[in-house]
Fold this sequence. Notes:
There is one protein chain. This protein has helices spanning 22-28, 30-43, 47-58, 91-101, 111-129, 136-152, 159-189; strands at 70-71, 75-76. By secondary structure, it is mainly α. The protein has one domain: Lysozyme, CATH 1.10.530. Strands 1-2 form a two-stranded antiparallel ribbon. Helix 1 crosses helix 7 (159-189) and helix 6 packs across helix 7 (159-189). It is globular and about 55 Å long.
Amino acid sequence: MTGGWLLLASCTTAPPRNVDDACAIFAEYGGWLGDARAASRRWGVPLPVLLAIIHQESAFRADAQPPRTWYLGFIPGPRPSSAYGYSQALDGTWNRYTAATGNHGADRDEFAAAVDFVGWYVNETARRNRVARSDAYNQYLAYHEGQDGFARGTHRNKPWLMERARRVRQQADRYRAQLARCEPRLAASFH
């Protein structure tokens, strides 16, 4: 093939063009609004908290994974964890979610399943660790460290993580303000 390009199609959805604006995300991917609202209602978690956690974990990339280590600069090594997809859920935690919810066909690279997983996890943290579902800062710390790690306070020795949690809270606040402006319009356009 001379002068041509070989294009490989990806099976995953491309991330939204503007991941910092909830209105733009849902304008681009209208079906995601219904998925996110369903998870919000099911688990009692504010929509901005769900979105802010996904924003931090994967920037809305369906196939996100932690970078792998490389040996000698060119030999691929293992990844530091099994985190995958929009929610960056670990294999074991994802298996707990599917067992608890009966959602056995769920995939981490599907937005509907990932946003429901985040809602489930936030709800579990509220139940187990008594962290308000609307508390994006502490919910993110528990999401990153695990509920047991959060209870032990493992995040207290990680200033970089506490700064990341502050950014999650700020992003949730931005999403909240944006959604107040556009959610009624978006909802009307998808009915």
